[in-house]
Specification:
The complex is a heterodimer of chains A (about 325) and B (about 270).
Chain A lengths: L10 H18 L6 E5 L20 E5 L15 E5 L13 H12 L4 E7 H11 L7 E4 L5 H9 L8 E2 L11 E10 L2 E10 L1 H8 L8 H13 L3 H11 L4 E2 L1 H7 L7 H13 L1 E3 H8 L5 H10 L3 E4 L2 E4 L4 H9 L5
Parallel strand pairs in A: 1-4, 1-5, 2-3, 3-4, 6-9
Antiparallel strand pairs in A: 7-8, 10-12, 11-12
Helix pairs in contact in A: 3-9, 6-7, 6-8, 7-8, 9-11
Chain B lengths: L1 H10 L5 H31 L4 H27 L4 H35 L7 E4 L2 E8 L3 E5 L5 E5 H6 L3 E2 L7 E10 L4 H13 L13 E6 L3 E10 L5 H18 L7 H10 L1
Antiparallel strand pairs in B: 1-2, 1-5, 2-3, 3-4, 6-8, 7-8
Helix pairs in contact in B: 1-4, 2-3, 6-7
Classes of the chains: A alpha/beta (about 325), B alpha+beta (about 270).
């Protein structure tokens, strides 16, 4: 086993670097467009100073938002400010938006500085509908999902050829005729990531010829992982680790690693908070939404349903069940 | 002449044991089918909540088809109808209308028209003739409304057709809820608006999605200020729970900020002096 998986070129990161460079170039030409980078849980993005280049030699500083009431402006220096985890600037209660509204106001007033910010996409969607944050960030970059091929390459890069034994325990199954993949398309002068349908030519041809497409056990495993992770590499790794009985993995192991469920409105409300902030302490939940739902009882129910896991009083959504959590939250209009 | 036709109609009646048993079985089967359909529609509406009201609206239409088929089967089984019998049956039907079934018939016709015209849907929150509540069923004779006090009100269809009916959601499970908060005249309006807006967007009942805005409107009166919050609930069944939640949480914060409700005694005193 090697650590090559993370060293592989990430096409999403390459596109991000290009967009950041465009933002920096525009800023140097006196056209400031503050940047919001939106990422999915378990697949966070980290922006480094080396991800862009300033032809005027502008300096950059980087600050990770602290959920505690610490002023993020204290550590900011230079003309380019990278603020990571901006979704932690709000709290889900009356008066809980003061900090984020203040931050947005300061970003607007601080015209001599370019702000590059990162956000959990679920928190971003909520905040945009609640307080209209997208108006403050003319450039929004959504990190793309990984394709089936990219995902397979990144996971398998850690292993030697033949190290993992893929065993088939299902009848031959046909590959889906229609797959969805994210493509970067330039629309109205902006690069946008759009989910586009892609017809599986080989499967279609075989379907027309009425022949079954044989999927290798390896392809079956990764097709299921890709489907269950929605192209999220962080989730895919978690599902892989839970499915792998080293050195063997079967398609049925992948299905067994995930669990489908439904949620009550109260459970969905609490789970949505954890999803948006990625990790939340029970005390923090009590403080924010304790006047609306009985936090202790609902946390116990969510743990029993294997929707969240608790590590020392801190809750996280279970990565392997992220897809089904989002589906359940969508039924309550919370994702 | 009429007597002859009536006698012909009676003579076309085929009241033998086999036919009667057949008709009885058909009637029981139709009633069971309507019950089963109702159960299936409710289950489907719960499963596909986003399209729940559309699914429920199919029920009156399907019920109408079942009953129409039932009437057809019963009549053709019991009578051997020629053109004279049909003419006579029409005459008898007209006489029955004149003799007092006019209102029932009007309700039934209106019920059929409403199934197609859809002035409101099953599941809608409607207000008619001072009754407000959720439409639970659209029958042939009456529409049944469940009020917030758990009273089932049957409103004759002709009344639903002739009177203005306000539907708060018209087929959508998401509904705008209006909550009024009254404060003392001296309050900081901007701060109260902020509190109310945040109470709405942080409520577990709210529908915070594109196309469902939260609005806070202010209206000054001589002795108080009315703040009106207009926002959407995800599920219309939560209308009153949302209203309560928003009011309680907002007032807790407003009281902490020193905002007071209108001083009614003072206002009444001034009115009395005036």
């Amino acid at each position: 086993m090697s650590d090559e998986g993370d060293a592989l070129a990430d096409p999403g990161k390459e596109a991000l670097r290009q967009s950041l460079q465009d933002a920096v170039d525009s800023f140097e030409a006196n056209r400031r467009a503050n940047v919001a980078i939106l990422y999915h849980p378990f697949n966070p993005v980290s922006v480094m100073e080396k991800d862009f280049h300033s032809s005027k030699g502008l300096s950059a500083s980087r600050t990770a938002i602290d959920p505690a009431e610490q002023d993020p402006w204290e550590g900011l220096q230079g003309s380019i400010a990278i603020l990571e985890g901006c979704h932690l600037l709000y709290r889900m209660r009356i008066g809980g938006f003061d900090r984020i509204l203040d931050a947005l106001e300061r970003m607007r007033e601080d015209e001599g500085r370019l702000f590059i910010t990162t956000w959990n996409i679920h928190a971003w969607n909520y905040l945009d509908n609640a307080i209209g944050i997208s108006a403050h960030f003319p450039m929004q970059i959504q990190m793309p999902d990984h394709s089936f091929k990219e995902m397979k390459e990144r996971i398998m890069a850690k292993y030697e050829e033949g190290e993992i034994e893929f065993k088939d325990d299902e009848l031959p199954r046909q590959r889906r005729l229609l797959e969805w993949e994210v493509k970067r398309i330039r629309l109205l002068g902006k690069d946008r990531d759009l989910k586009c349908p892609r017809i599986e030519g080989r499967a279609l041809r075989k379907e027309l010829l009425r022949k079954k497409v044989y999927l290798s056990p390896e392809d079956k495993v990764f097709e299921q992982i890709h489907h269950l992770s929605g192209g999220n590499i962080g989730v895919a790794r978690e599902i892989w680790m839970r499915s792998l009985h080293y050195p063997t993995i079967r398609p049925s192991d992948v299905m067994d690693a995930c669990k489908k469920f439904s949620m009550s409105r109260e459970e969905a409300f609490l789970a949505a908070q954890v999803l948006r902030k990625e990790r939340m302490g029970i005390t923090q939940l009590e403080e924010e939404i304790g006047d609306q739902v009985p936090v202790g009882g609902i946390v116990a129910a969510l743990r029993q349903k294997e929707i969240v896991r608790a590590d020392g009083g801190t809750l996280r959504i279970r990565a392997e069940n992220l897809k089904f959590t989002i589906e359940a939250l969508a039924k309550h209009g919370m994702a | 002449m009429v007597e002859d036709a009536f006698l012909d109609l009676l003579s076309s009646l085929r009241l033998d044991a086999e036919n009667l048993l057949y008709v009885a079985v058909i009637i029981v089967a139709a009633l069971l089918a309507v019950r089963a359909l109702h159960f299936i529609m409710q289950a489907l509406a719960s499963r596909y909540a986003a399209h729940g009201n559309k699914i429920r609206m199919l029920f009156p239409l399907l019920k109408l088809l079942i009953y129409a088929a039932l009437v057809f089967v019963v009549v053709t089984t019991l009578f051997e109808l020629g053109s004279a019998e049909v003419l006579l049956a029409s005459g008898l039907f007209g006489a029955a209308l004149g003799l007092g079934l006019k209102d029932v018939f009007a309700d039934m016709v209106t019920g059929i028209v409403m199934v197609f015209e859809k002035p409101y849907h099953i599941g809608d929150m409607v207000s008619v003739e001072g009754h407000y509540g959720e439409v639970k069923d659209m029958g042939f004779r009456a529409t049944r409304i469940l009020t917030p006090d758990d009273d089932l009100v049957s409103v004759p269809n002709i009344l639903m057709f002739n009177r203005p009916v306000a539907s708060a959601n018209y087929g959508s499970p998401h509904m705008m809820v209006t909550v009024d908060i009254y404060t003392d005249f001296g309050c900081d309006r901007k701060e109260v608006m902020r509190v109310l807006r945040e109470a709405a967007v942080t409520s577990r009942y709210s529908n915070i999605r594109p196309g469902y805005p939260v609005l806070v409107l202010v209206k000054d009166s001589p002795f108080y200020v009315r703040f009106r919050v207009r926002s959407y609930v995800w599920n219309l069944a939560d209308e009153f729970a949302y209203e309560t939640d928003l009011t309680v949480r907002a007032w807790r914060e407003l009281a902490r900020m020193g905002v007071e409700p209108p001083r009614m005694g003072w206002a009444h005193g001034l009115e009395g002096n005036a």
